[in-house]
Amino acid sequence: MEEAYWYVVHTYSGYENKVKVDLEKAIENRGLQDYILEVNVPMEDVIEVKNGTRRQVQRKMFPGYVLVKMIMNDETWYVVRNTRGVTGFVGPGSKPVPLSDLEMRKLGIQEEGQVINIEIDFEVGDKVSVISGAWKDTVGEISEINQNKQTVTINVAMFGRSTPVELNFLEVEKV
User: Which of 20, 65, 127, 136 has the highest CB neighbour number within 10 Å of its CB?
Assistant: First the structure.
């Protein structure tokens, strides 16, 4: 039997979950469970911080795209391509190109312990209060925001001079 690969399917934006449900129904109705193994709408956990309130939400990693693990043949191609909301496979022309194992690992789809991204509502120049750690109850002004490391650098007054301190996003809140 052939090997199954992951393919990227382009959908109308906002239709990703509907495409997943419709495709899973079509797989069941046509008995293609052995050929189309998994349909995935990649989600990531994001912590949003707005007005000092933190909440964890799930967000689509790739709006407008669905990942499908399948054995490519004429029938599976037809079923996926003709699912309502699907605009086509990602790849040159009409020939879908599977994702490599390296690409899948980079996407983090098959890895456990995924990273939680934190979205903040403060900017450079905002005043923040430290809510935990060694600098708790200290107020400072943000001089730098590093989204990759998910840290802010604030300037605090220490011994009469301004001193930069790097803190995690979760350690500060807007004043």
Answer: 20
